[in-house]
């Protein structure tokens, strides 16, 4: 007699005797002891590895201000992976483009705004959060107006070109009783969070120094690069645009704030890209513990995206460190090199959901206005150190604890279990 596949036998049993046979009697030789259900039936809720996402009506409504390359290709698609947010409104200076985008994302035509009628968002109760994705020179204006309209704000980095504007944004959030978060996506990304934990837990031995480099070749023919080469819009050149990744990484990997800064700036005067903004910036940060960070940024080189932390016992390397979609984390020691095979997560959705959770729980975001202000202060100090040619002292009362640095680490645990 030919063996019958268990699933086929189960179907035959269900078809026979009015579907009421017991599996135990029919499958006795196989030792099965479970009843074959007569019909499909619901099962009790199992123990969940992750919480269920919020339902559509409980998700916070987001408006995105600025429909450039980054918003269209990175942020807007990430709402599909968010558990707590939904896209409900768009703000753009090009209404035809906004209508086309709205059609793809199910945004109602009445929820499309221009820059000239932006303040009407105050009348729209469906909007809980406004995400500012504009050139840095416009951040303060639109952030303050969104806060005054009663909305919470996620603002792209750098926070603003000046410390005074950062202060005005923070004060506006305090007056309005709303959350202000700066979009440091890497601080919500699993590989970076795991790197912070490993350093904080001493897995490299005593931390000695950090290197971090972010550079790329700008193209003035590309609309996304045109405003980046205008100081009035960008606030600065490579340092403000991508050097901020090197700077921020040095701060969250060390877990400290710099006390001394030295720097140099190098730009080719014959290159029309650098008539207004700087190209290559090399800067050195000294931290209270004695840790040194050597960092760089550039607008005229092949792409670099790297961060390294060197300890007494091991070296941690992330390359790419702050990419949009791919990351690598390895640790080298006397025992060899091992790759940490973390699964990729959607860092954009993670930062969106973090702000939503902070709004619901009425807690301060991991990367509040004070975090953005600190980087702006430091970048302006780097410029000053480069101009003076001296090592400049830097004083700050801004500090973050280990717990604050590792907020969101549950992302890593979930990915390890997945």
TrEMBL record:
Residues 61-184 form the Gfo/Idh/MocA-like oxidoreductase N-terminal domain. Gene3D superfamilies: Dihydrodipicolinate Reductase, domain 2, NAD(P)-binding Rossmann-like Domain. Keywords: Oxidoreductase. InterPro entries: Gfo/Idh/MocA-like_OxRdtase_N, Gfo/Idh/MocA_oxidrdct_glycsds, GFO_IDH_MocA-like_dom, Glc-Fru_OxRdtase_bac, NAD(P)-bd_dom_sf, TAT_signal. GO terms for molecular function: nucleotide binding; oxidoreductase activity. PROSITE patterns: TAT. The keyword Oxidoreductase applies. Residues 194-314 form the GFO/IDH/MocA-like oxidoreductase domain. PANTHER family: BCDNA.GH03377. This is Gfo/Idh/MocA family oxidoreductase. It comes from Coralloluteibacterium stylophorae.
